């Protein structure tokens, strides 16, 4: 590639008059593009790119053990509908929660066999569960109104995760999780008995 720059650079390193005269075509016959990532790329961004490559190459695997913990319903537990009802959800809100849970489940099922998708879901599940247990459940235990609980869920869980996805999802060509999916993950974990909306120990 030939770069020819003309013009008087002037004084004081001012190049305001320089012009770019000609650039030859760079590898016009290229048929593939290689992505090079800097060493400071985030793990999540790398997982999104890895998922893209796995789908292109058909790389699949059995579900990893850590993820099985989250997607296997614990025996003898209440349904998502019952737990949400116990938490003060109205019937219409329960129906919407179940819709979001199913929305997430359908999207996740499409990519459930890809290792990177499994890792992304595991990381998000873990983040949701620990944040819920650490900051949301104490509010529930204190007897707060459901509206207050939901405001805190948006502030402490949904907004931070969406920010994380937006900042690291440049190569997310497949999952495209929205706020609906993040709420769906919360209700999915509720149905699997990883999240409680009522203090059952003090009933």
What characteristic shape results from the CA principal axes?
Answer: globular
pLDDT under 50 segments (min length 5)?
1-6, 9-40
How many helical elements?
A: 7
Q: pLDDT average, as an integer?
A: 85
How are helices and strands ordered from N to C? EEHHHHHHH
For the secondary structure, the number of strands is: 2
Description:
- With 203 residues, the protein is mostly helical.
- 55% of the residues lie in helices and 4% in strands.
- The protein has seven helices and two strands.
- The protein has helices at 43-57, 65-71, 80-86, 91-110, 115-141, 146-168, 179-191; strands spanning 3-6, 19-23.
- It has a two-stranded antiparallel sheet.
- The longest helix is centred in the middle third of the chain and has 27 residues, at 115-141.
- The model is unreliable at 1-6 and 9-40 (pLDDT under 50).
Write the layout of secondary structure elements.
Elements: E1 3-6, E2 19-23, H1 43-57, H2 65-71, H3 80-86, H4 91-110, H5 115-141, H6 146-168, H7 179-191
Please supply descriptive tags for the structure shown above:
mainly alpha; 7 helices; 203 residues; single chain; disordered N terminus; globular; two-stranded antiparallel sheet
Précis, in short:
The chain is mainly alpha-helical. It has seven helices and two strands, in the order ββααααααα.
